[in-house]
Amino acid sequence: MDYxxxxxAGTPARTETEYAGVLIEGTLGRRFRADDSRYALDLxxxxxxxxWTRDIxxxxxxxxxxxxxxxxxxxxxxxxxxxxxxxxxxxxxxGVRQPLDVDEDVDxxxxxxxxxxxxxxxFLSVGLRPRTGRLGLSLYYEAYRFERSGAVPSTLGPVVQxxxxxxxxxxxxxxxx
Length: 177
Description:
The chain is an all-beta fold. 0% of the residues lie in helices and 69% in strands.
């Protein structure tokens, strides 16, 4: 994945990164449907924990490093649900995600507990699910927007996580209870 960042001194740095992580999210909602309607409106809220590691490769102007992130977030949104053909349901969801607690650790420079602030961001998903099954698939877009962290002492001197943003497109599998 492409990485457009900067050194602690502000020098632009472009390189490649690798991500690995896990996301756990619980959602509660309420469905509203008129008796004669083929469509329903879902209003929902969610609480999630997103944990990932980012390996940033070396560049000619900066050494690479490994960052570990933990983001506790809340979500609120609405979705329109309707029939998408015989035996299938389709769902279009839109909402906002707000990081509640953000922690970042960088072992290579002994900087632990960088805490960039979280700003609200949008999410969107389009999904399909069989009417009689518990599994579903969705295409999604999600974003994170982080404010600059406060300075943290390290072996290299004070370090900060600059303002940053991440946008993700993907395919997600769901299990419905």
